[in-house]
Amino acid sequence: MAAIKDDLHKLIDTTTDEQLLEDIFMILSSRKDNKAGSLWDGLTDEQKQEVLASEREINDASAWVSHEEMKRRNAKWLK
Predict the structure, then answer these.
(1) Which of 5, 25, 34, 76 has its CA 20 to 30 A from that of 63?
(2) Terminal-to-terminal C-alpha distance of the chain
(3) Can you list the alpha helix ranges (DSSP code H) found in the chain?
């Protein structure tokens, strides 16, 4: 981990792109403040139910459509 920190410090020290520095700062600041599970805890009960329903759909292999089937169904637009 020390190597990546050193590399990041070097990149920051050598850049003259202020927008890039602001972006990096915002990313690091926002990640520092996030706690595990905070995103889930911030959802409403309805949003949590939607996420769980989506997860069930993803795990239902019978609802999947193959790439070949999608190409067949959409052939008229793929020409």
Answers:
(1) 76
(2) 50
(3) 2-14, 18-33, 38-41, 45-58, 67-73
- Using the Cα atoms of residue 59, residue 38, residue 23 and residue 1 in order, give the sign of their dihedral: negative
Q: What is the pLDDT of residue 54?
A: 93
Q: Which domain holds residue 41?
A: 36-79
Do 48 and 75 fall within a single domain? yes
Q: What is the pLDDT of residues 28-55, one digit of tens each?
A: 887 776 677 678 888 999 999 999 999 9
Biggest distance spanned by C-alpha atoms of the chain? 55
Predicted local confidence at residue 33, as pLDDT: 67
Whether residues 14 and 44 fall in one domain: no
Q: Are the beta carbons of 15 and 21 closer than 8 angstroms?
A: yes
